[in-house]
Amino acid sequence: MAAQLVAARRDPDTARRLGPEEEWAYTIAYNAMLLAGRAVMFSEGYRPTTGEGGHAAVVEFLRIRLGARFQPAIDLMDRMRRQRHRIVYETAGSVSPSQIAEAVGIAEDFVTKVEALLRGSSDDGTNG
How far apart are CA 121 and CA 14, in angstroms? Predict the structure, then answer.
């Protein structure tokens, strides 16, 4: 779990350094969210599959485990998951700089909130 969070914290910084003109930053921001999501799974004794459908399984687990307070971020994560697949396996150039900037910001916020949640902190975004 700790290794997942260390990597998740690193990724938004890397994405920000690449900037919103670099499409790979979008993929890195998604990876930060995926790693944070895997940390949540590990914290509860689950091991996400590494095969086909593994990323989707993490998203669905987070929908159930984290609930409504994380719903907007998880919805974006799911869209990013599908878009990342297109970037990596199909067509590059399909994400705008504004989408990249939004993804990086939300990934940073998501990782911070997941870390707080896993620490048991009240700074997990549940207080309003």
Answer: 26
* Three-class HEC string of the chain: CHHHHHHHHHHHHHHHHHCCCCCHHHHHHHHHHHHHHHHHHHHCCCCCCCCCCHHHHHHHHHHHHHCHHHHHHHHHHHHHHHHHHHHHHCCCCCCCHHHHHHHHHHHHHHHHHHHHHHHCCCCCCCCC
Quick check: is 59 in a domain? yes
The count of structural domains within the chain is: 1
Among 11, 53, 18, CA closest to 36? 11
The model's pLDDT over 11-36, given as tens digits with 9 standing for 90+, comes to 999 999 999 888 999 999 999 999 99
Token representation of residue 121: 């902190």
For residue 40, what pLDDT is reported? 96
CATH of residue 41: 1.20.120.330
What's the chain's length in residues? 128
The whole model's pTM is what?
Answer: 0.87
